[in-house]
Amino acid sequence: MDKLWAPWRISYVKNIKQKGCIFCQPSGRKPRGYVVFKTSHASVMLNAFPYNNGHLLVAPLRHVSRLEQLKDEEALDLFNTLKRAQKLLAKVLKPQGYNLGLNLSRSAGAGITGHLHIHIVPRWKGDTNFMPVIFNTKIVPQSLDELYRQLKNAQSR
């Protein structure tokens, strides 16, 4: 099933009263919080409100909001987890490029400010078109459940 995302819902999404941190307690979303994998110091999950198909979030397991709060071993594991997640996306979705980014603070665009996380957004030539410009609508062509299954299955091969 294809999904047509509704960006006008962002005001609703931003006003949801989250109980706890989605990175510390991801079980609020299905299946199993969309956590694709965990390492000793980090986790990778699907973004429930993706900018593009395959949008992942990589976060340290420890609840910190700033890079300088990470211990050296956490920072190294976070970056290695980012690399592993990118390889997994390459295997499953075969994107032609990526946007990788951190939004540190509300003024920098962070929707979740209390827990540091890195965005991985797969990109393809032509994945931007007239829909966002004219209709203020982004098309995401795959369901989160389907993508989650593909990413989980690809790890076992």
Care to give the gist of this entry?
Helices cover 28% and strands 18% of the residues. By secondary structure, the protein is of the alpha+beta class.
Helix content: 25-40%
Going by CATH, the architecture would be 2-Layer Sandwich
Tell me about the largest β-sheet: 5 strands, antiparallel
Radius of gyration: 15 Å
What percent strand? 15-25%
Strand arrangement within the widest β-sheet reads 2-3-4-6-5
Low-confidence stretches: none
Q: Helix/strand/pairing class, anyone?
A: alpha+beta
CATH-defined fold name: HIT family, subunit A
Number of strands: 7
Question: What is the top-level CATH class?
Answer: Alpha Beta
Chain-averaged pLDDT: 84
Query: Tell me, what's the shape?
Result: globular
| Cα distance spanning the termini | 25 Å
Q: What is the domain total for the residues? A: 1
Instruction: Please identify which CATH superfamily we are dealing with.
Output: HIT-like
Order of helices and strands: EHEEEHEEHEH
**Number of helix segments?**
4
